[in-house]
């Protein structure tokens, strides 16, 4: 895999557009996600200032030897509605030209960058006009699955459960990963049965997803962004808006069918009988009710599809979750309740970057995955590690907000 960050000129294929492999994009309806590799300044490849033998190694791949570069895999997100901010970031970091300085005599061939998502088609002309690059489009579902498989097999402490305010990392055995249900919650929701590398099927979905939450939230509150709406929901009480089982049964449980008095009987149901106008309801209560309604719905549909195929593990991805405790707890409770504890909801630390990571991996030609799965790299306490060596101690339980990086090593072809 060619990741020669800092080269004065990109490598050219006389028959193909130039590919800069250290940048990949996933441009969705709500968010544009970037994954890009940056090499440590003191780990240089041949032809620059020599190779740092202390940390730059030689790894065999087939019949060839490739130098190994230490660096970071970086993650960055932008609102798709502000795509110009994304373009400016790429330009300022020179990601579209491999991080190099502008060439005095640039070639006539355009540079191609791997991209997936609907925006790879919608904004293709804009990227070409503004940055002079071609978006080399990869199938969205292929990238989602490839990204999820890669992260689950390689990244230490990638998956975890969350219920009742208890977060617990799950040790994934890559030899016993499949099958599982991947639920990607973006603007809408896609549900994919994954049975192995490149072996998957989209089995269901729903249009009630993150776009629904933000769209209805903007109509019902004064929030302008997803994060603002999530923050508002923290302060809310959905019981002021939702009709509970206890409201119907005089504060009692409906124990015969296993429903507690606090269970929601009807989302937004209290608005039916209350003699109040919309302005009389607190925005934070509306936001909380809306978040719980959508999360419960996704959780139940996920369970039904897992039940349909006999799957016990459900991995939730997509930026809808945002490590929001209430969202994760609601999804987990729904899966646990409807499956009677037989199925388990699990979450991913890099939940929103599955497609972007898959897009990044699609340019791999020299066994990047094999290297990252076996190379023990030096770790900073504030970073995650790609290494899966069981002798490594667990990393501090830091949060991942989508604008961070992971220490890793890659082949330089």
Low-confidence stretches: 1-21, 42-64, 99-106, 371-401
Rounded to the nearest angstrom, the distance between the terminal CA atoms is: 5 Å
- Which topology of the domain at 18-141 and 353-411 does CATH recognise? Nucleotidyltransferase, domain 5
CATH class of the domain at 18-141 and 353-411: Alpha Beta
Percentage of residues assigned to helices: 25-40%
Number of helices: 12
Number of strands: 17
Q: What's the architecture of the domain at 18-141 and 353-411 in CATH terms? A: 2-Layer Sandwich
Biggest sheet architecture: 8 strands, mixed
Approximate strand percentage? 25-35%
Rg computed from alpha carbons, rounded to a whole number of angstroms: 23 Å
Q: Give the overall pLDDT as a whole number.
A: 77
Helix and strand succession? Answer: EEEEHEHHEHEEEEEHHEHEHHEHEHHEE
Report the structural category.
alpha/beta
**What general form does the structure show?**
globular
Describe the structure.
Helices cover 30% and strands 25% of the residues. The protein is an alpha/beta fold. Among the domains are: 18-141 and 353-411, Nucleotidyltransferase, domain 5 (2-Layer Sandwich); 210-241 and 281-348, Nucleotidyltransferase, domain 5. The strands form 3 sheets. Strands 1, 2, 3, 4, 5, 6, 16 and 17 form an 8-stranded mixed sheet that branches. The chain has a 7-stranded mixed sheet with strand order 8-7-15-14-9-10-11, sandwiched between helices. It has a two-stranded antiparallel ribbon with strand order 12-13. A hairpin with a 3-residue loop joins strand 9 and strand 10. The N and C termini lie close together (5 Å). Mean pLDDT is 77; it is low at 1-21, 42-64, 99-106 and 371-401.
